[in-house]
Amino acid sequence: MDLVDLWRPTGQAELDLVAASRWRAWPPRLPDQPIFYPVANRWYATKIAREWNVPAKGVGFVTRFSVRRDFLARYPVQQAGGREVLEHWVPAEDLDEFNANIVGPIVCEAEYRGPVADAEFDRAEAELGRPLPVAWRRYLQGESWFRSGWLGDTFVTLYTPLETVEANVAAHPGIAIIGDDGSGERLTFDLRQDPAPDVDAFVARLESGDISGRSA
């Protein structure tokens, strides 16, 4: 069977409806949504999730799914901007048939969140008894940050500052546990280091999809 991978950026409400379908179908369009827009690559889906969904609702998701190529040929790729800004335009009345041609589950590949408040950082640092790295605060207080998702073949979850406090039990003094990879491996910053952890390099690896180093 010849399949094409597509992506779609979405918000919490639509993702909840996809989950209710057991990850098999996209919900009907609203009256003011005459077109369903899956996109042709993860980069573009991520850009929309981070630049539109997160500012609008505080959270954005990137999903991936596979569609039969012969069916998708009805809806040629449309270039809606730059070279990688590629979409398929599916009329709302065709969505049931489109869903019937999805093969396998709709997968949530990534979640992005909006800025973490100063108050949460301040409370977390008070409970940890140490400041978190300035660069980590800068990342989590940026316009959007990677909360969880697939980076290569690893599913990574990053923690909010208060989740770091919850994970940072007394057995780990001076270590900030800032996430995990779903298999029991923790992502950490050693706050006792001198010089301080190179968080900017860690964030750069994270944003590029490379977490080969589990700590900064």
Structure explained in plain terms:
This protein is α+β, with helices and mostly antiparallel strands and 216 residues long. The protein is built from eight helices and eleven strands. β10 (175-180) and β11 form a beta hairpin. α5 (118-128) packs parallel to α7. InterPro entries: Knr4/Smi1-like_sf.
Task: List descriptors.
single chain, 216 residues, ADP-ribosylation fold, 2 domains, 7-stranded antiparallel beta sheet, two-stranded antiparallel ribbon, 11 strands, 32% helix, Knr4/Smi1-like_sf
Short synopsis of the structure:
This protein is of the alpha+beta class and about 220 residues long. The chain has helices at about 10-20, 40-55, 70, 95-100, 120-130, 135-140, 160-165, 200-210; strands spanning about 5-10, 35, 60-70, 75-80, 85-90, 90, 100-115, 145-150, 155-160, 175-180, 185-190. InterPro entries: Knr4/Smi1-like_sf.
